[in-house]
Task: structure prediction
Amino acid sequence: MGKWITAVLILAGAAGIWAAIFYIRKKLRAYSSLFFGTKNLMAAAQELNQAVEDPPRSLNACEGSVLPQVLRDFPDFDIGLVKRQVQDYLQKKLGSHPSFQIHRVVLSAYEKDSLQRTLVFQAAVSWMEEKRLQKRYDIHYTYALPQGVSAVAASCPNCGGNLGFGDLECPYCGTRVVNPLKQTWAFTHLQET
Result:
């Protein structure tokens, strides 16, 4: 009789352990689904590990301070149109991965010199390889003389005063002028930062 009691106690203990494991597993799946969006806790842990290994890239957005400077030099400038052109350029240069995604494009800087103006954009992009790769790129969009054209000095047809880059009126006599230097916009630089 003592052997039967021992066997029943062992079976009852095993059934209790099995029920406890089943209950804990069910609760873990429910919490995993609630907090991580998947019932597989291991997959959720791997996704969290990946997010820690490759955090999203921050961008240096300076549109509030840079855009007024750009608009002074280019009154018809359309930031939305140019951002779409930057996205198209990135898609053409980097979009060979089927999972390629552009998260955000911002105007980061405006650089001037005597012959050209450069808008510096930053973009956050990602694509999937073994894990999701997130990168940040600098894209330079430059307004300059076309290739093969040497620099020439423009002068006012009214007073002969020297005109600066992109001047729409003479700084000396105020005469409205047409810019004879046919500059064009072009992408001149793409670099991962």
